[in-house]
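Lecture notes, continued. The same structure-token format from the folding unit now serves as the input rather than the output. Read the line below as a description of shape only.
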């Protein structure tokens, strides 16, 4: 699901700066379970992933887990990586500006009668692509890396 695959569960642990043993203890699972998650033998439960995200201070782990676990989520949701906060906010501003300047007006016109006619389909799809860019940029901003200190 992630195009540049890496083990998100291992990344969460390393971000927290913990050994497998300490990580297991902190999130209430066995060290063997940690090893199995980190070697892709099994997927952790959603509850375990919530504890991992909290322990690592990275809610993006939940998002990545959802993409990794669900083919439906991987098809519908944009991939999100960790960007620095200024870069993420700039990306969001550009996407919102572009959508407000064209796609939003186009969607409003097309949706006025409650249906998408065959001659409107291409313009509708283009506007939805712009809207997906806004959603992606918003998620990048939500999960952006903040400077420490």
């Amino acid at each position: 699901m992630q195009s540049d695959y890496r083990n998100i569960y291992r990344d969460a642990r390393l971000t927290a700066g913990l050994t497998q043993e300490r990580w297991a203890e902190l999130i209430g699972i066995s060290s063997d379970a940690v090893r199995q998650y980190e070697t892709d033998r099994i997927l952790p439960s959603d509850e375990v992933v919530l504890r991992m995200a909290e322990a690592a201070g990275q809610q993006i782990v939940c998002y990545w887990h959802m993409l990794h676990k669900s083919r439906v989520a991987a098809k519908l949701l944009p991939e999100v990586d960790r960007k620095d906060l200024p870069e993420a906010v700039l990306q969001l501003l550009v996407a919102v500006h572009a959508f407000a300047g064209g796609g939003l007006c186009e969607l409003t016109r097309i949706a006025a009668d409650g249906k998408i006619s065959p001659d409107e389909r291409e313009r509708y799809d283009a506007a939805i692509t712009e809207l997906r860019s806004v959603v992606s940029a918003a998620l990048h901003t939500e999960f952006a890396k903040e400077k420490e200190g």
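Point for the exam: The mean pLDDT is 91.
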